[in-house]
Amino acid sequence: MNSNRKVTWIAATLLVVLFAASVFSRRQVERVRGNEATLEDVLYLPSGKTIKRLSLGYSSLLANVYWTRAVQYFGSRHIKHAQRYDLLYPLLDITTDLDPKLIVAYEYGAVFLSQQPPEGAGQPDKAVSLVEKGIRENPGYWRLYFTLGFVHYMDRNDPKAAQIAFEKGSEIPGALPWMKVMAARMAERSKDINTSMALWQGIYETTYDNTVKDTAQRHLVSLQADRDITELQRRVDSYRARTGRLPTSWADLINAGLLPGIPITPFKDPYVLKDNGKVDVQDGSKYPYLGEWRNNIEKPF
Amino acid sequence: MTSRLSAITLNTFREAVRDRVLYNLILFVLLLVASAPLFGQISIGLERLILVNVGLSSISLFGVIIAILIGIGLVSKEIEKKTLYTILSRPVRRWEFIFGKYCGLLLTLIVNTVFMAMGLYLALLITAHSLTRADVLLLGAIYCIVLQFMIMVALTLFFSSFSTPIFSAIFAFSLFVIGTFGEDLKNFAAMSHGPTKWLASAAAYLVPNFASLNVIARVAHEQPVNGSLIGFNTLYALLYSAAVTAAAVLVFERRNLK
């Protein structure tokens, strides 16, 4: 083997071995730094406005990077059923400082922030702050008022603030008519299951994000089951009051004229009538929010 | 062999020092550092923070620019001026030439960094009238910047070994930008599925990881840099730059210089 070939072989071997070793050492670096090290840098940044000045006119591109980081951060924490989402708001704040017209960051960011852990960050006040910033920057975009009203009503239990948000949104040209309906319902009373379903239905129909759509659907089926169980329980109690005993099956209620047929869940399987007279679903895991609203109902809508 | 290597290294260093571009850039950095206290005066309570951020970012960014501007011409200039043939006609092996050039440019950057760091500490001293323990932490960031330069020098030398100066500069700077967002690429791979995941993971490990070498924000807020992070960063920078230098040697060995 001549000298040149020898050097070539040594260089090629070194290239492979050293690169493989560099991958190993990089994994060690990642282990020491942690998966969120780059994201944690946002805690040290003075403000998104400073980053905007430093971005040399590429602030929109940088906003996309930060928005992607926010989504990845939320997704990775959500999968782990995390209880804390400390970096979410700073990431969203910087994103919207860099590009105040990035509507998607306000809309989905508010949903990410407002829901209780592990579904979200459990920071409805910060969600309100984010959406209000979005409204200031995009006053003609009525859907942000819907998001604001949604957060006020669902996560801050403040129907009055929600009513104001829906009303203001309904006044913007192009706003869909149900914004007025929502404002009216909010004014009528505090939280109830029908309003809640209408809100989630609105989200389900208007969102383009599959994760948010799935969440809305899970809320909707849980609320549907909640409403059905409330009504079925009322009929079971009525049967008991009439006969002095608990029904043993749905057939007893049907024969007594209290039910037209076997009640079916949103997943098309029958509701369960337990020995103690309580109504339930067969598979509770399909209804993650079951009972959440039923227990809070003051009056039927 | 050692004497041949040190001769190439020192000549590369001398040549870089004679380069006017280098002086312009250093002057620019020093001016930037000197003007940092002025930035601080128009903000509240951020004087030191701005000074450290501007100073360290300038050292890093202009060091990278120096590495690219000088690195791209290391091989092509020697070919253009026909000096390469004189060097290789002597008992100098091609890999010694490449490795010597690498060491020479790295030495240049280290010396520059030392001067720029002195400028930064001087500015800190003028601003705060004394140096504190927190200021020592800046050395960790400066060390990581040098590690960044190790990789950048290897990359520019690699591109310079087979491409024209302008394309070498474009490739090297692009890799610097991509490497700065290297962890985003890794996170993207983690969130992907199927072939996209494998491709993104491979790309994430192939490009240099400059994100982990950037600890400027941390030290600016007086947070210490983890010792094991410095250790593994050093190992990574050594191995990655050695792998890229080996690739440069491989290309240069097989290059037809006739």
Secondary-structure map with pairings?
The complex is a heterodimer of chains A (301) and B (258).
Chain A: H1 3-33, H2 37-40, H3 48-54, H4 59-79, H5 88-98, H6 103-114, H7 124-137, H8 143-154, H9 159-170, H10 178-188, H11 193-206, H12 210-243, H13 250-255, E1 272-273, E2 279-280
Antiparallel strand pairs in A: 1-2
Helix pairs in contact in A: 3-5, 4-5, 5-6, 5-7, 6-7, 6-8, 7-8, 8-9, 9-10, 11-12
Chain B: H1 2-18, H2 20-41, H3 47-71, H4 73-80, H5 83-89, H6 94-128, H7 133-136, H8 138-160, H9 165-180, H10 182-191, H11 194-206, H12 216-220, H13 227-254
Summary of the model, kept short:
The complex is a heterodimer of chains A (301) and B (258). With 301 residues, chain A is mainly α. Chain A has helices at residues 3-33, 37-40, 48-54, 59-79, 88-98, 103-114, 124-137, 143-154, 159-170, 178-188, 193-206, 210-243, 250-255; strands at residues 272-273, 279-280.
